[in-house]
Each structure stands twice: as structure tokens, then as C-alpha cells.
Design a protein that fits this description.
2 helices, 22% helix, elongated, single chain, binds zinc ion, two-stranded antiparallel ribbon, 5 strands, 102 residues, alpha+beta
Length: 102
């Protein structure tokens, strides 16, 4: 997989970890080459829980390597911000707890 931004091809490191970074952008797994990692306009998807860009995209879900938060990949496809729906559900759940409903 080439760098999503500049199209550079990944070369296998002689030893040690690859300097290439994995991320998720618009619900798709992308690779970022070391040069492009210095750019500030990467527009990577961020974790809804901790804000990290160290995400991995699996079948139907996106997992945060930083905090382990997993969300469904389809959540973002509607172009709606994902937070309000989650927030509404959380508020509802919290209200239910407060009101003693389960
Ligand atoms: Zn690049
Ligand atoms: Zn996270």
C-alpha cells in the first residue's frame, strides 16, 4: 500500500520497526510515509474517546490502538458528526440510571 498522500511506495526497513505510520482516513486504512507524517493537514480520523490518530480499520469497525475504543465504521458514513447520536444515547442511558429504569 503506498502513502495515501504522496503515493510513495513503502520500502521494507532493514531492521526494526517501519517508520511508516498507519492510520484511518475517511473510514479507510491508510499508510503515511515518514515525510508526510510531518505534515499538519493529514486529516486522519481520530478516536472519539481519546482523540488519538493511532486507529486501525478492521472489517466494519475501527479500533483505537491507544485506548482500545472500538466503533462501527458505518457510523461516519452519513457525514453526520458521530458525537450527537452517541451523546444522546449516553444521556438517555444516564437518565435511565438516575430514574431507576434499566
Ligand atoms: Zn507520503
Ligand atoms: Zn482512543
Amino acid at each position: 500500500m503506498p502513502c495515501y498522500r504522496c503515493g510513495a511506495r513503502q520500502t521494507d526497513p532493514v531492521r526494526g520497526a517501519s517508520p511508516w505510520k498507519r492510520g484511518v482516513r475517511a473510514e479507510a486504512q491508510v499508510l503515511i510515509c515518514p515525510a508526510c507524517q510531518r505534515s499538519h493537514d493529514l486529516e486522519l480520523d481520530t478516536c472519539a474517546a481519546c482523540g488519538a490518530t493511532t486507529l486501525i480499520c478492521r472489517l466494519g469497525e475501527i479500533e483505537c490502538r491507544s485506548c482500545g475504543h472500538v466503533r462501527n465504521a458505518e457510523e461516519n458514513l452519513s457525514k453526520e458528526p458521530p458525537l450527537p447520536a452517541d451523546l444522546a444515547a449516553e444521556v438517555e442511558a444516564a437518565l435511565s440510571r438516575v430514574l431507576g429504569r434499566s
